[in-house]
UniProtKB/TrEMBL annotation:
<dbReference type="Pfam" id="PF04909">
    <property type="entry name" value="Amidohydro_2"/>
</dbReference>
<dbReference type="InterPro" id="IPR006680">
    <property type="entry name" value="Amidohydro-rel"/>
</dbReference>
<keyword id="KW-0479">Metal-binding</keyword>
<dbReference type="InterPro" id="IPR002195">
    <property type="entry name" value="Dihydroorotase_CS"/>
</dbReference>
<keyword id="KW-0862">Zinc</keyword>
<comment type="similarity">
    <text>Belongs to the metallo-dependent hydrolases superfamily. DHOase family. Class II DHOase subfamily.</text>
</comment>
<dbReference type="GO" id="GO:0006207">
    <property type="term" value="P:'de novo' pyrimidine nucleobase biosynthetic process"/>
</dbReference>
<protein>
    <recommendedName>
        <fullName>dihydroorotase</fullName>
        <ecNumber>3.5.2.3</ecNumber>
    </recommendedName>
</protein>
<keyword id="KW-0665">Pyrimidine biosynthesis</keyword>
<dbReference type="GO" id="GO:0044205">
    <property type="term" value="P:'de novo' UMP biosynthetic process"/>
</dbReference>
<dbReference type="GO" id="GO:0046872">
    <property type="term" value="F:metal ion binding"/>
</dbReference>
<dbReference type="GO" id="GO:0005737">
    <property type="term" value="C:cytoplasm"/>
</dbReference>
<dbReference type="GO" id="GO:0004151">
    <property type="term" value="F:dihydroorotase activity"/>
</dbReference>
<dbReference type="InterPro" id="IPR032466">
    <property type="entry name" value="Metal_Hydrolase"/>
</dbReference>
<dbReference type="InterPro" id="IPR004721">
    <property type="entry name" value="DHOdimr"/>
</dbReference>
<feature type="domain" description="Amidohydrolase-related">
    <location>
        <begin position="85"/>
        <end position="205"/>
    </location>
</feature>
<keyword id="KW-0378">Hydrolase</keyword>
Amino acid sequence: MQLKDLASIELPPTADMHVHLRQDAMMELCTPLVEKGGCDIVFVMPNLTPKIGSVSQALEYHEKLSKIAPNVKFLMSLYLHTGLTEEEIEKAAKSGVVYGVKFYPAGVTTNSQEGVLDIEQLYPVFAAMEKHDLVLNLHGEMISTPASAVGKQVDPVVTVLNAEPLFIPQLAKLHKAFPKLRIILEHVSTRQGLEAVRACGPNVAGTITAHHLQITIDDAVGDVFNFCKPVAKTPEDRLALVKAAIDGSGKFFFGSDSAPHPVQSKKGPGATAAGCFTQPYVSQIVLGALEEAIEQGWIQADEVTQEALEGFLSGFGRKFYKVPTSNSTKKIRLEKKGEKIPDIMKSADGAVEIVPWGRGREIRTLSWV
């Protein structure tokens, strides 16, 4: 498929299996943008304040989101914490809205302070998840070595660049202990992460973001709005991700990890927020990354087939989560009309401002047909 020669392309609605929709005013701004990005189903992250740690909280959050965007199917998740019981897992499986449990290593990313310190302590929860067929969603990074340890004997030293490869043994360990448990290595950012997912059985998959298909570590260093966790890695890693997105294996599918933050928390004194806000343009950004990869000669045009593209953006994720393929007769149409990503997006009252990833880039215009 020679994307650059296609003035228009039609696809099934995108399934975004990793989104952050936040809460309060930020939720009100971001949730309607799910459909703008071409999505009719999304898997929602639970790292709010307070966390979504129980089925009742997930149901309440689901109701709020559904009122804002009634045409979107919201798959909810629970935050994995030491107070999560086997009984709550059973309740989640019967809820009809909770599809997974999110594993955050404690302190690794936004609102993860109550995350996991001892994986084996939570084995009874994983056993219950395996029994009741809930998905385990892994933020697959080790915690970076603190600056206070510099000069001391620390082995291994963990940085944002090797945090994912160093986590991989935990994935293999969990898969061996619970072979029937469905596991997703979220937002894979390295060649090693891709290889680890491929080395596991069919119950293990990986999500790939739109921005990791577009940028490398140099881009993250040069622009605070490209900073995310996990950080973008090397050009070789980016190329491996692009190839995985079109390999048609079903082992990898789309999860944007779109993470909105107020502009003040992304730049200025003390700004450390990690996240790229891609939600309004996720389908277009993926197509743009593949088009660039073809133009650069990294992949061949005939490697980007309609089947592989539809599988990555829509079908594979739905199949892994065991939700029906979209029964809507609607499709999304993406056309070259010279549209550009805006510099900033604001709430109606101007109180919330977010800088979207890729500001100023030309993208295809998306419409529902």
